[in-house]
């Protein structure tokens, strides 16, 4: 049976490792000076060479004639390890041998001297899968193994390892392999296999592999089986069913132009074509990231294909960097867990993006920071650049008059600021113009506060003196607001955002429509006990009783 590519062309020396020069150099010096550790921890993403490096290290420390820290790869010992015949190299898959009994068997056999090699090497792959009891059984042996034994642990999820395990190992962090290095490696493999592959097709494969050389080699092998010895870019796009790395080109264009209907239709069409929502989400995020890097002049153009580069260059002038940042924040919060119809999670994100707003321009004068309100609809439609206001001109004004640019009239409108404004938007005290800014600031924190939805459902909101009054039609909303503010972190965050948005510290009073105050929160506000609130939820009426002294 012919070997698959990733096994056939597995690295046999440290010089053959791709994208891990920082690790190969250190290990080479370690072997050359005979100062290698008793235990190693190799951690990093899948397909980056962890297990291959462990086998190379096993060869290097047991090779009788190493060459500058590298195994000779010609002696009997090197050949035995390469083909998996060495009895002193023990590989354990912790995913299927994770019990304490398996580790106890290892700790008992490790004390036996090597049969042929100089050192007995244990490679435990996916070590994070061990149970807590198994880790505890491994601790003593890992800390003080026999002089003839070397242990190498490999994992893709180092966060799951106990700190006691990590501290007993010499740790090496494997990096995702850059796309250009993966592409160069695929070119070498294609030549070795006598297969003609378009360079652009190899770039698409490299981009799709997300830093995993093994994944890239598997895709290339699939392409060779499917299209024999002449593989074009169109062949790769057809095989991957993603349109290369321009999968979300149309979708991104619709999002940028705020075409909500077309965005949702394009999303559903892609799902109908058999493309997974996770794949769409990942590709869309990657495209937004590349577009932000292009607008920031920070993109390494060697890491993306010419097709994607042309697509993004066509879109870069249609959107501002601040809008891209807002889109990326919405997309990163998408969570598919809990949705039976996974399309819904992305559809909700598209709607939120379409309804979202660009952060307002901030102008700083000598004494205060004034948030300028802009007509966001006009900004999104016309994308008119805002003129720069000279800070010194503001300072020279005796009354500290901030200047607000009006997109409709293209004129500066003078607005006098009141250091203690009792109301906004007229005598009614309504906060319509400021309310959207407040909701947006809550959303941009990245924290999923429940009261963000509660604030959107408020019947009315007014400012009376130093109090922001929020009125609801239903008592359940008041109760939910009260429950949410039990958390002091949540309460502090809300008050901080209100201060930031309204430029003044306000207490918050929550009322039920037609009744007096039901909740008032400030820096010194107290929260009712859980017992009282539970009783109220069941319909109890709490009456405060006081003793009268006769």
Describe this structure in words.
This protein has five domains: about 5-175, Rossmann fold, CATH 3.40.50.300; about 180-240, Helicase, Ruva Protein, domain 3; about 250-355, Zinc Finger, Delta Prime, domain 3; about 360-415, no CATH class; about 430-535, GMP Synthetase, Chain A, domain 3 (2-Layer Sandwich). The longest helix is centred in the middle third of the chain and has 19 residues, at about 275-295. With about 550 residues, the chain is α/β, with parallel strands linked by helices. Helix 6 (about 130-145) links the parallel strand 3 and strand 4 (about 150-155). The protein has 24 helices and 15 strands. The strands form five sheets. It has a five-stranded parallel sheet with strand order 2-3-4-1-5, covered by helices on one side. A four-stranded mixed sheet has the order 12-13-14-15, with helices on one face. It has helices spanning about 5-10, 20-30, 50-60, 75-80, 100-110, 130-145, 165, 180-190, 200-210, 215-225, 235-240, 250-255, 260-270, 275-295, 305-315, 320-330, 345-355, 375-380, 390-395, 430-445, 450-455, 475-485, 490-500, 530-535; strands at about 40-45, 90-95, 120-125, 150-155, 170-175, 195, 230, 360-365, 370, 405, 410-415, 460-465, 465-470, 505-510, 515-520. The chain starts with a helix and ends in a 13-residue tail after the last helix. Helix 9 (about 200-210) crosses helix 10 and helix 16 (about 320-330) runs antiparallel to helix 17 (about 345-355).
